[in-house]
Amino acid sequence: MEGPPSGESSSLQIPAANTENPAGFKGGLPAQNDEEELVYDFQAFIAQLKDPQADPVLRYTRSFLHNFTTKKDLWTCEEQQKLIDDFKLFVYGKLALYEPFKSLDSGKLLNAKEGIEKLIMGKLYARCFSPCVENRFNEKTDKSHREDLERDEQLRLKRDEYSFIEPEMLEIPESLTQRLSKFTRLSGRELARINEYKAPRDKMVCVLNACRVLFGFLKHSGLENGGADAFVPVLVYTLLKSDVHALFSNLNYTERFRFSEFLRGESAYYLSSVQGAADFVTHLGHQSLHIPDELAFEEQYTKHQEYVLEQRKKSAKESATEPDTGPLKDTVVSTASHTPAPSEYIRRPLDEATSAILSKVSELFISSPPAETTDNQQERSPSARLSGEQSQEPDPAVLVQELQRQENQRVLDELHLMFPDMDQDLIQDVCEAKKYRIGVCVDVLLTLSS
Amino acid sequence: MLQFKLVLLGDSSVGKSSIVHRFVKDSFDEFRESTIGAAFLSQTLKLEKHEDVTIKFEIWDTAGQERYKSLAPMYYRNANAALVVYDVTQPGSLVKAQSWVDELKHKVGDQDLVICLVGNKLDLCEDNDTVRQVDMGDAQIYAQEQKLLFHEVSAKTGAGVAQIFQEIGEKVYERKATESAASTAHQSRKPLNVELQRPSTNDSTSCCV
Predict the structure, then answer these.
(1) Model pTM?
(2) Minimal CA separation from B38 to chain A, in Å
(3) Does B190 contact chain A (CB < 8 Å)?
(4) Which portions of the sequence form the region Disordered (chain B) (predicted)?
(5) What is the tens place of the pLDDT at every residue in A333-362?
(6) A42-128 has which fold?
């Protein structure tokens, strides 16, 4: 399992290098899209990288990571972006020179490029993802990274302030309201998973899945030609009603560190849409809403603010009584807000597969132990901690399978919840036919249920 | 294949999405490659004036409701072309389209963007010209002054729709051709000057991050 099951956007599509999933596996269900379903295979890439002939590529990568982490402690965001982009361009060029990459077909070559991006961003995450940067460098953080955090905070406050609003205040058609909250909640949960991944591609897929759930819903509510007029209000509603930590940080990170060639087409459209919607929420005021009854609204608003205040007091009390959980505790408290601890950003177990695979090749990135220890001490960042926990080294193949199983089960459970009246076996059949990609599954199940 | 980003702007009632759906539906192409139903569509197009040139449009729809206007910049950044749509049967519709044109010119700049002004719902005026509320001459003069492409179309009958995309396609393609000729003449580097030492294959002091 390498990242969330994706939709079928062209820019995210990676041909299967995995023979366990033969492409012909499709049930007799309504085909949503005839494009071949493709699977991204990080393990295959790591296997290629371990090939002795790939040694130059490995050395280039190692040298880049070394320089990035030792030349300067804190690069600005713009510098990071340029360095990483330049390196990708450079090393992607080198893939054409060395086996086994040299003789890969274009699809598998793309997989290798994705693999490199995932590898380096996994290693540099703690230095590039704004909430992690903040935790490492605190007040030294550069402007762009700091702005991400400020915007996250603004968004959170606005969301609290206006989370009570009704669909019609955003001009969402009445025909949608009945099932609206069910689907926006599901979409919000998919989006929230953006915090469970480090690779820009994986984060992108979470955005895509969240949007696809909404499109499936719109399509089956008679708004298939509604375009952005129908989509944007529902997306804004989703953001208001769901709790996605550090959304701006995540979106900006994805935009900065996803290789520009991969960031186009449908996925770029969705990323921009979510950015736009998040921006809308950040600037939300009475004037941006459709308010039929001013007085009633004011009343609702005041009542809601009291509720929010109460909740805040309550959670402040709770966190005060909580036992000190770690050395990061005081930095969290000092910001006096709901900034999650860094470990919350990479929750188990989704990125564990990546870590497990990486720990297998970690010897490739380790050389002289003395240099290692000094670097590693400052490096006790969430990602380092995470990979440290992998020291017992489970077999990656087994772990990957187990995580895939868990992820499939999660999708299945979500869908049972969404379609309680539908036959469980049928849901499972749909999931298997559609490879557990939640956006597509929702679409198919809606077709079947109507 | 060259790809171009085209953004759709206009009020919710002017039928901007219908124009695109009509274009995609009527397109006869051997490489059907469009994702229908969403707010994002892609469609390939063979240019009539340039033999053997096929381009791909990535069409980005925007929300037309006034309250969502502030989202538009997220959509039109890096666009190659914009379709600004108004409704010929709605008084005041052209004025709203003009404010989009102003915003685009102000925020994006002419040199990077091909703008096409489109009056939709022509079919409604065909039998009964009293329905028309926006004079074609007025729109045309405005478009000339602002150096915009201009068409009146009917998404319903399909009249004029194909021409818009042909014309935009030619224009963005020609711009791209001149541009790439110019950029090969003098290669420009990114302005930001940060470099690590060139990654090398014989670096003995490697580390684990």
Answers:
(1) 0.80
(2) 6
(3) yes
(4) 181-209
(5) 333 344 444 434 444 344 555 665 555 555
(6) Serum Albumin; Chain A, Domain 1 (1.10.246)
